Fold these 3 entries.
Entry 1:
Amino acid sequence: MTKPIPNIMKYMTSTPYHIEKDASLIEAEELMQKNDIRHLPVVFHGKIEGVITSTDINLIKGLRNIDIKNLKVYDCFTPNPFTVKPDTHMDVVLAEMAEKKYGCALIEDNHHLVGIFTWIDALKATQHLLETRLK
């Protein structure tokens, strides 16, 4: 007898940190550093707009003649992120993340952010599944 594939909500990070798209880039960087995260969902009035990563910020910081003190999140974030519903099966999410090389999936319910699932969460889920289903 096989066990059912879990939904993404089992392994997502609930109520993730997020930032408004009109916040400063410095604020986004500080929020990520303070909380040791690399993917930060971007919202506008509670609705998902995109995602910004620490890699995005580091790339911008490396550009000449760019002062990040003058930039807003909306200047640098990736719009239209990969989003799924909380009841989406993990295999669907993992396949899309692998195929498109996404670093994260944002979990939305009624167009509002309810979670995030990163490749680190995928590794933790894999470890848990291996330990509980293959022993």
Entry 2:
Amino acid sequence: MIRRNTNQRQIVFDSLACLGHATSDDLINHINNNYSNISLATIYRNLTILLEEKQIKKVKIGDIDVYETVKEKHYHFKCRACGNIIDISPDKIPNDINSIKMIDNNDVLDLDIVFTGICHRCIKK
């Protein structure tokens, strides 16, 4: 069931689109700093609805849950120095990884890869 879009839901979605990748705390801080005060319950309720409607997704990066808007298939790179999370296009990954269909007699439907290292900005510092 797709619910009608409310102003608060649009604010949550737009905030995630603006931030790129955000923990729930990042999102709450962004909303409270940039919009009229929206209750925590409203933010969490709208996160749940946006997840159910597949407009956003929750990704586990390390031990942290991060939200992002749904985009083309991609992987993630997390910088160990600054914590920045960068989207990595599948065409940057060797084809043999993207073409995996079976692992140990299990049918692979999707894979979620998180690379960690030092981002190009931190390398330049």
Entry 3:
Amino acid sequence: MSRSMVIDEIDLEIVRHLWDGRKPYADIASKLGVTTNTVRNRVNKMIEASVLEIIGLIEPKAIAGHYAAFVTFKVDPAKVAKALEQICEIKGVNGVACVSGGFDIVADVLFNEEYTHEKFLFEELPKVEGLKSIETHFVVKSINWQTRYVL
């Protein structure tokens, strides 16, 4: 959970530069006209407030036998919060969110030859309370999309 924190324009510029997570703070500071300590302190504050996480991402198709999908869920309205928590804990799930539109929840899920979509459907999803229906949207091609490796 993020603590209350207001992100200002300098914070946003730092985050934009951190898209390359290996970029030195000194380089970011130079481009923004602030000190290296200012960048370091702001990054640390954002991490502590859980509004920023610096992680490595992968393109699933670059790893043999891996594939990704966005899985959408319709859920009993009284059980959306519980289902959100339960889906978040399932193996292979990178992230989950409540959404507007035709579905209540969407999850970014990573699969491989050992942890298949079939196992996800028939072993994991029956444990989730309040599911009415699901749709799986497999990633067949992407541009500038990567995900965490969670398997």
